[in-house]
Amino acid sequence: MDLDKFKVHGEPLIYGAMVSIALATIGILVGLTYFKKWGYLWREWLTTVDHKKIGVMYILAALLMLFRGGVDAMMMRLQTAAPEMKFLDAQHYNEVFTTHGLIMILFMAMPFIIGLMNVIIPLQIGARDVAFPRLNAVSFWLFFMGAMLLNISFVIGGSPDAGWSAYFPLASLEFSPTVGNNYYSLALQISGIGTLITGVNFIVTILKMRAPGMKLMKMPMFTWSVLITNVIIVFAFPVLTVALALMMFDRLFGSQFFTMANGGMDMLWANLFWVWGHPEVYIVILPAFGIYSEIIATFSKKNLYGYTSMVFSMLIISLLSFLVWAHHFYTMGQGAMVNSFFSITTMAIAVPTGVKIFNWLFTLRKGRITFTTPMLYTLAFIPIFTIGGVTGVMLAMASADYQYHNTMFLVAHFHYVLIPGAVFAVIAGFHYWFPKVFGFRLNERLGKHSFWWIVISFNVTFFPLFFLGLMGMTRRTYTYSEESGFGPLNMLSFVGAVGLAIGFLLLVYNIYWSTRYMPRDTTSDPWDGRTLEWATHSPMPIYNFAIVPTVQTRDALWSAKQDNIPLYDDKKITKIHMPSNTGKPFILGVIFFILGFSLVFSLWIPAILSGIGVIVMLAFMSFDRDHGYYISAEEVIATEKKLKRGETV
Amino acid sequence: MKKKGPLYALFLSLILLLPGCSSLTVLNPKGPSARTLSDTIILSIVVMLGVLAVVYILYIFVLVKYRAKKSNEGYIPEHEEGNKVLEAIWIIIPIIIVAFLSVVTVKTTTEVENVAADYKDQTPLVIYASSSNWKWHFSYPEEGIETVNYVNMPVHRAVEFRMYSFGTITSLWIPQLAGQKYAMSDMLTTLHLSADTEGSYIGKNANFSGKGFAHMEFEALVMSNKDYDEWVNDVKETAPELTEDEFKGLLATDFLGRKTYSSTHLEFSPPPGDHSEHMSGDGSEMDMDNGSEEHQDNKEIHPSPEPSSGTEFDSEPDPEVEQPLPSSPVDAETHDGH
């Protein structure tokens, strides 16, 4: 075995990263042992099937990945801040922008949103957990192991370097001989399977486990957006699964699906990738629309305007999202007719999206708007996202795209869509639902400080990129000459990036500060909410609701508070059936990780053994006859009494 | 309202910068194709500024009017279901805008995918542009010459680039003359452009292609017909011939400066079949195989499928080239026009 391929050479930055990863790992292990927390970690987290804890773990992982992706972004902005910078070399820069894209989309935005879904959806529909709690744990551990696999690539063997879209033949063995793109195919595959399972799980949960009376058209908007998102996941992710499998065969076993030789088709990869890749954008943006809808309604004290058209616009967006993939490569030479078709389908998305914007504005109208931190992010989203939207229409025009394609204009556009459309949303949702999960709010003053830093710096960072694009600066360029004239605007953008970093550090500081000093929320409904998640205690007991609520209107809790429409038909507390914890999903995840790692380095014997391990584990889990356990009525009553007195359980 | 400040400043600067800002190369076109695109872009920006204005005005209005104040404390907004008429308005007006932009898109896309109207009666000058690693090879089959990393072309002349790649996907882009198009290993793509001003323009690969991507620029020099002819003759007389061995050496090198040859590589290493043949059913499979293998090892001479348009790629310089170039209707008027 050739040990050399495990090593990454050269950069002091990489050695620094290796040392800090090693130190952090040792620190965690020693800390766990010293404070005797191994048992706690295993019982309460690694084996949990509780949707709330899984959601929290998703969000923690997403925050970690936000840090990693953010450091990547800072390195890129620093390298391009001035002409002829010598901070990173070409290879390193290529790896950094590739992992930045992958991590931010797949290991930050998606898990953050899935985390919020996990925490909130069962509460919002009045359920005790998701439909398949154990599968939910499998989803999380597969996602987590996939994310870890991609992250160790930085220090073991080298990261993928062909862009997050990994176009062939650049990503083939011929042009990318390091193991980087093996990591790509396997890490995405493993976490992708997790996401697909999440998709199935949440569709079933939302369709089958709603509280009595909650008809489809009475579901909260966030629940609707999550339902539609998961339908997109179930349709889109299998395409990625297949594409990644073919890629893995090409790179590991010498098949020729996308290579240059023997009839391989590089264009096929681009098509498969974007057939998944474009719906993927809506997978992160539709739930964001849902989060914003909840927040706008809550903080303007009004029901959502045009509920029906909101639902239908999301359905139309989800349908159209599968009909626009070729707009990512208008320049591939498919001719005016094909491009025109995709231009029209793409621009058509602007119509339902516009409907949503106007409905939000009309929800605000005649409301009583309070400017809390989550509401500020939501209100900043509207004007900024609209810029992203209108530049999207400009890019959709195939002819004009011949001039925008592959330039910084495109980079500016998709950051203007994804940052307000996904990142602001998850931060807003994080602030909004934080008290639900932890029983206290984040500090508003610190929250507003970090908000202003983030929003202003965001515009300073990305607005100049529109101009850089029109000046002819291509994306993914690690350096440029003085004469190009790209220097000043890039420097401005770097200054903005520093501001963004400060904003995010303030956000993290706010979490720390609030955990130590914020008073406990005793109302369980700190924002005067409208939907069911605010009808139970904060933090909620493991069974969510002592009595399953009955729903008669869309804003069930609001109606209960305003019009005294009762939430509970049946007042009697009975025993509650709950799923039992299991370590099998975690173990399955670990085996998948070993399988992925072995395949990345073509270590066949461990790969075969762990492959068998995966199959055995799946079979074993299929025949598992654990039917869960009951919490007795007395115990529930005792817990409820404690919670009412404001004690923790 | 504080945050509107920076946004407005940015927008004002956008509006002020737009007209006549020569550093925005994309909006400073020097040929009909790039001009069509620049006009399309400016039109779309104007329409979109209109859309933004509507949203922003409404946004500011509701935020100012309906924010929580001391005076409306205790006010509980009424339940409001929606309004069919209003919702219809913001469905129909966007549809009209999108329909308008669709028409513009279809029209301009067709326009730039073909020879520009003013140059319709010319036989285009064909230049094969192929990329390998981080260089561009420009072959002039009619003239029988080849250059590396620079391309010269006559002014007021329809030029047809036929692009392909000896490796990764690249994208040929000369922003001031035309939009970009991919060069790929298994398919020939076509880019039509012409220049109405003499000058030197930056050309580059726009599509990320690995380590040397940032350095993959070339000069596109547009010269008078006379200078162009002189240059071609000069090259034919003085430049060395491009042998197969020499070409293999070129392909294997990562970076190169400028090179000039008095023959083309197309003679021993034909390009892949073009798009139309890929689409035409049965034969396509074979063509693809041929095309790909050639680029694996540029040794054998495959019977290459003739480009469907029937243009003149031939091992012998086309006799037509020796004749004076077809005159263009724009020839006379353009010079004073700009």
Automatic annotation (TrEMBL), chain A:
Catalytic activity: 2 a quinol + O2 = 2 a quinone + 2 H2O
Membrane topology: Multi-pass membrane protein
UniProt keyword Transmembrane present: yes
Cofactor(s) the protein requires to work: ferriheme a; Cu cation
Highest taxon of source: Bacteria
InterPro entries: Cyt_c_oxase-like_su1_dom, Cyt_c_oxase-like_su1_sf, Cyt_C_Oxase_1, Cyt_c_Oxase_su1_BS, QoxB
Major subcellular site: membrane
Membrane-spanning intervals of the chain: 12-35, 56-76, 96-123, 135-156, 183-207, 227-249, 269-292, 304-328, 340-362, 374-398, 410-430, 451-471, 491-512, 587-620
CDD domains in the cross-refs: Ubiquinol_Oxidase_I
Subcellular location: Cell membrane
Domain Cytochrome oxidase subunit I profile: 36-552
Pathway assigned in UniProt: Energy metabolism; oxidative phosphorylation
EC number from the UniProt entry: 1.10.3.-
EC supergroup of this enzyme: oxidoreductase
Keyword terms of this UniProt record: Cell membrane, Copper, Electron transport, Heme, Hydrogen ion transport, Ion transport, Iron, Membrane, Metal-binding, Oxidoreductase, Respiratory chain, Transmembrane, Transmembrane helix, Transport
Cofactor note: Heme A3. Binds a copper B center.
Function comment: Catalyzes quinol oxidation with the concomitant reduction of oxygen to water.
Protein family according to the UniProt entry: Belongs to the heme-copper respiratory oxidase family.
Protein name (Swiss-Prot/TrEMBL): Quinol oxidase subunit 1
Species of provenance: Paenibacillus phytohabitans
Lineage: Bacteria, Bacillati, Bacillota, Bacilli, Bacillales
Gene of this entry: qoxB
Automatic annotation (TrEMBL), chain B:
Start and end residues of each Cytochrome oxidase subunit II copper A binding domain: 122-234
Keyword Ribosomal protein attached: no
Subcellular location: Cell membrane
CDD domains given in the database record: CuRO_UO_II (cd04212)
Keywords: Cell membrane, Electron transport, Membrane, Oxidoreductase, Respiratory chain, Signal, Transmembrane, Transmembrane helix, Transport
InterPro entries: CcO_II, CcO_II-like_C, Cupredoxin, CuRO_UO_II, Cyt_c_oxidase_su2_TM_dom, Cyt_c_oxidase_su2_TM_sf, QoxA
Ranges of compositional bias, category Basic and acidic residues: 292-303
PROSITE patterns: COX2_CUA, COX2_TM
Topology with respect to the bilayer: Multi-pass membrane protein
One Pfam short name: COX2_TM
Sequence ranges assigned to domain Cytochrome oxidase subunit II transmembrane region profile in this UniProt record: 18-116
Domain of life: Bacteria
Reactions accelerated catalytically: 2 a quinol + O2 = 2 a quinone + 2 H2O
Gene3D superfamilies registered for this protein in UniProt: 1.10.287.90, Cupredoxins - blue copper proteins
Signal peptide start and end residues: none
Family the entry assigns: Belongs to the cytochrome c oxidase subunit 2 family.
Protein name, as recorded: Quinol oxidase polypeptide II
